[in-house]
Amino acid sequence: MPLNIPMGDLLPADWREGRFLGRLDLPAGPTPILVEGGIAHDMSRVAPTVSQLVEMLPLNAGDGVALGALDAIDAPLLAPVDLQCVKACGVTFATSTLERVIEERARGDAAQAAAIRARIEERVGGSIRTVVPGSAEAEALKALLIAEGLWSQYLEVAIGPYAEVFTKVPVLASVGALADIGVRSDSTWNNPEPEVVLLVNASGAAVGATLGNDVNLRDIEGRSALLLGKAKDNNASCALGPLVRLFDDGFTIDDVRNAELTLTIEGPEGYRLEGHSSMNQISRDPLELVRQTLSEHQYPDGFALFLGTLFAPTQDRDEPQRGFTHKVGDVVTIATPRLGALINRVTTSKDAAPWTQGIAALYANLAARGLIGGAA
């Protein structure tokens, strides 16, 4: 059964004032919407996909068909992107960097994490929190850590000149707010990753932001960084939403730079974990991460870019010294006042609804609705 949470609980505090892009799962099929003045407008006759709407900004909501007040609409929200690539940046915060080093040294074994964490924090913590990535000071710190036998591939992307940028999921594979989110059934050490996600157009300009959960499998990636794809790209492993807030005079990239994200995990056994991620602690500016994503690459349909997270859970859940890991039935809420709340329930990737609506299916649906000129 889907989570029974009203639309209004997902929306930003000032949702009637901002402008938002999103997608609704209407009976006819996936439908791009523009929300303005609190009213949702079906924009499918203006452009049948969000990726095409983005290229037409600024948009006139009056060119669409008014559906009514957004908080009164009884239709599921899909992930607010469609044909855009979904990219992600890793280890962009000092705390999460140290946790990646811990995973690597523990070889994915949560039982070893506490002792390793204490040593790494003592030797590296202070330095890595102040150094500017790619600077002369960063190179000097790297030389010192190599000499002490503490260097790691994760530290390379944390303080070196190149950010880690990877492809999170295929086009159209992300799930939206209130959908089940998937964790691999063979993972025993994992956690959510609450992040701000930028929406970037085909020209490389950031046009808005949303929330994302870049599910992290600490045991699998910890065994080898070469397992990143297996750890990150699984059925229902990427959640985005609830909507993309478009940049305007009242919401700018500085709001992203200063966003405070809260995270709440409510377990079926009564467990509760609260965390946060402060974007002002990020090691690389969000627009620098966009620039590095675009370096020697093009994205003709645009892209969504996860910016990374400060959150790294160490609070024990069941056994002492084993930290946090998900259980089926966990409800994860990621929220910030200007972007709203992304709420998802945890299941396994095997048990989550299978991904069946790819690009061909989308275009067949659009053709059948007369929104494009021919069948896929």
Descriptive account of the structure:
The structure is a single chain. The protein is of the alpha+beta class and 376 residues long. It has two domains: 82-92 and 163-368, Fumarylacetoacetate hydrolase, domain 2 (Alpha-Beta Complex); 94-159, no CATH class. The chain is 24% helix and 28% strand. The chain is built from ten helices and 18 strands. The chain has helices at residues 50-54, 94-106, 113-130, 136-147, 153-159, 218-223, 228-232, 253-257, 286-294, 359-368, and strands spanning 19-26, 29-36, 39-42, 65-69, 77-78, 85-90, 164-169, 180-183, 190-191, 194-200, 206-214, 216-217, 238-246, 260-266, 272-278, 303-306, 331-336, 340-348. The strands form three sheets. Strands 1, 2, 3, 4, 5, 6, 7, 10, 11, 13 and 16 form an eleven-stranded mixed beta sheet that branches. It has a five-stranded mixed beta sheet with strand order 8-18-17-14-15, with no helix packed on it. A hairpin with a 2-residue loop joins strand 1 and strand 2. Helix 2 runs antiparallel to helix 3 and helix 2 (94-106) packs antiparallel against helix 5 (153-159). The protein is globular and about 65 Å long. The model has no long low-confidence stretch (mean pLDDT 91). Pfam families: FAA_hydrolase (PF01557). One of its GO terms (molecular function) is hydrolase activity. Belongs to the FAH family.
End-to-end separation in angstroms reads 32 Å
- Give the overall shape, derived from the CA principal axes: globular
Relative strand content: 25-35%
Main beta sheet: 11 strands, mixed
Low-confidence regions: none
Number of β-strand runs:
18
Mean pLDDT: 91
Number of helical runs? Answer: 10
Q: Can you name the CATH architecture of the largest domain?
A: Alpha-Beta Complex
Helix content: 10-25%
CATH topology of the largest domain: Fumarylacetoacetate hydrolase, domain 2
Number of domains: 2
Please, what is the CATH homologous superfamily of the largest domain?
Fumarylacetoacetase-like, C-terminal domain
Radius of gyration: 21 Å
Please state the structural category. alpha+beta
Family: Belongs to the FAH family.
Protein name: Fumarylacetoacetate hydrolase
Keywords: Hydrolase, Metal-binding
GO molecular function: hydrolase activity
